[in-house]
Amino acid sequence: MAAKPTGMHQIRQITELLLKQYSIHAIVRLTGIARNTVREYKRRVAQCSLSPEQLLALEDDAFSAIIYDKDPSQTDTIRAKDMQERLPYFIEELRRRGVTRQLLWDEYKHEYPDGYSYTQFCEHLSKEFKIKGAVMHFQHTPAEKMMVDFAGDTLSYVERTTGEVIDCQVLVCVLPFSNYTYVEVLRSQKQEDFIQGLSNALKYIGGVPQCIKVDNLRTAVTKANRYEPKFTEAMEYFVSYYNLTAMAARVLKPRDKASVENAVGVAYKRIYAPLRNDIFYSLNELNHAVRKQLEKHNTFFFKGKDYSRKMVFEAEEKSLLKSLPDKLYILRHTTRAKVQRNYHVILGEDFHQYSVPYTLIGKELKLIYTTETVEIYYEQKRVALHTRNFKRYGYTTETGHMPANHAHMVKTKGWDADYFLSQALLIGINTHQFFTRILSSKIFPEQTYNSCLGILRLGKQYGIIRLEAACARACNAPSANYGIIKNILKHGLDKVTDQQQGQIPFHDNIRGDTTYN
Fold first, then answer.
1. SS3 for 83-136, per residue?
2. Three-state SS annotation for 32-90
3. 119/67 same-domain check
4. Can you name the residues that pair with 185 across neighbouring β-strands?
5. Do the domain assignments include residue 507?
6. Does one domain contain both 214 and 92?
7. Residue closest to 293 by CA, chosen among 280, 281, 312
8. Is residue 387 within a helix (H) or strand (E), and if so which, with residue range?
9. Among 51, 49, 12, which Cα is nearest to 31's?
10. For the CA atoms of 71, 77, 81, 84, what is the dihedral angle to 10 degrees?
């Protein structure tokens, strides 16, 4: 049937005109209703057991039930009520994997043949989704809380000595009242980095809010619970130190921390995007660039407003924050390690080795370390202090920790960077360039001296002309070390020209192009 008229008054109008013996053409002209619709209602009135006069005397509900050949209990009112009762079930089912509106409608029509059409069915569902999806606007109290989360996307820098790309996590903190934001790039989401980032955030805003609200991060929450989440020991120490309260967002409820979710999205536009084509060579360099973009973000005016996040923060929120302690909280870890024969101890978390006085070889020492420093103690006395180095399997060495004979050997043999560079320059410019790369490949140059010494000895074995040629060939290699030069000289690659290198050598088992003519 054609589309149903907009109301019962139109059906009554058609019935009255039919009673007066008007033609279909005349009714269409007088009412503006489509021809097929008028024809359909003429057929229904003719098939009805009541006369047009009796139909017109009925109430709308009864008239509608008869004209549609239905019992009054199956009117639109009853059908709508039935649909309203079913809607919660339909909404819940649609959340299940693989369940579609078409499937639910098929089941609905099988159970209730006189129910809504598919289009009307979907319209009711859409209206219900809009009602269920209504979002409440929260009014935040100034200086009440700081919301914290990690961005889903990472930022990275390039390790200058190795060329390795280091992916880092990005911490985002926001005060929801003013939307004043703090962003910092961290090495990881581990507790020590996370706690350090939170401390830096409080330092940045210059005070302490009443509480801090975090996502259910493993570094912050040990057991997620809507009413009583369990926080890590490190997190509890942190909130106790700053005299604030910790809160955790509910699992899978991103709107519990909508302000920081929005801040992450804005950070992608205001920080990530402007830096997308830049290359950084250290975490500090990357954070310096991020901080510049962050300052711009906090001073941007809100859209359509004449004030910024920073202006709101300084005018209405900063003075209400609690004072910071004299010192920032730093998470310290403690471990023990035995001094090896090379007078170094290994920090197991990074497998990085730190030197101690050689007289302590074989002793067990205590290591206290943070994200910034490594302190080493023997019998309550600090025997070494190093800057924390996160390079795995690397070395951090102080010359003062070396035995006297080692130091004397280095001094008498002239084993320092200048010595090896001067020896290399006597061989040739390519050897000098290769040695420069080797000596700069380690933070502590002494760790490269054996490689340089080995290459000089290869010069005595193969001759300095071949050594210079080998270094020339190795200048474009991704790394610089003794093994590369040894391999070139051993296989005679220093004698092969670039043109010869691209030619296929003659051999009885290799077919020439004439074979296929």
1. HHHHHHHHHHHHCCCCCCHHHHHHHHHHHCCCCCCHHHHHHHHHHHHHHHCCCC
2. CCCHHHHHHHHHHHHHCCCCHHHHHCCCHHHHHHHHCCCCHHHCHHHHHHHHHHHHHHH
3. no
4. 170
5. no
6. no
7. 280
8. strand 381-387
9. 12
10. 130
- R_g of the chain computed on alpha carbons: 40
Q: How far apart are CA 180 and CA 171, in angstroms?
A: 14
pTM (predicted TM-score): 0.48
pLDDT at 20: 84
Per residue in 258-299, pLDDT (tens digit) is 666 778 888 888 888 888 889 999 999 999 999 999 999 999
Q: End-to-end CA distance of the chain, in Å?
A: 77
pLDDT at res. 510: 47
Which value, to the nearest 10 degrees, does the dihedral of the CA atoms of residues 80, 85, 86, 88 take?
Answer: 130
Q: Is 382 part of any domain?
A: yes
- Res. 186 pLDDT band, cuts 50 70 90: very high
Q: What is the pLDDT of residues 9-38, one digit of tens each?
A: 888 888 888 888 888 888 888 888 888 888
C-alpha span between 430 and 516 (Å, rounded): 44
Do residues 385 and 452 share a domain?
Answer: no
* One domain for residues 420 and 394: no
Give the pLDDT of residue 507: 47
Euclidean distance between CA atoms 182 and 371, whole angstroms? 19
Contacts 24+ apart (CB under 8 A), 382-389: 383/356, 383/357, 384/354, 384/355, 384/356, 384/357, 386/354, 386/355, 389/350, 389/352, 389/354, 389/443
Same domain, 340 and 470: no
Tens of pLDDT, residues 131-165: 655 444 456 688 888 888 888 888 999 988 778 88
Residues 160 and 254 in one domain: yes
CA distance 171 to 70: 64
Query: Do the domain assignments include residue 204?
Result: yes
Q: How far apart are CA 61 and CA 59, in angstroms?
A: 6
- CA distances 136 to 132, 255, 430, Å, are 11, 10, 69
CA-to-CA distance for 244 and 227, rounded, in angstroms?
Answer: 18
Domain that holds residue 380: 333-402
Amino acid at 131: I
Instruction: Specify if 460 maps to a domain.
Output: yes
The model's pLDDT over 120-130, given as tens digits with 9 standing for 90+, comes to 888 888 877 76
| The residue type at 6 | T
DSSP state, 337?
E
Rounded to whole angstroms, how far apart are CA atoms 8 and 15? 11
Q: Looking at the predicted structure, is the pLDDT value of residue 256 above 50?
A: no
Count of helices and strands (H, E) across the chain: 20, 15
Task: Tell me the per-residue pLDDT of 305-325, one tens digit each, with 9 for 90 and over.
Answer: 888 889 989 988 889 998 988
Tokens 């420069």 found at: 436
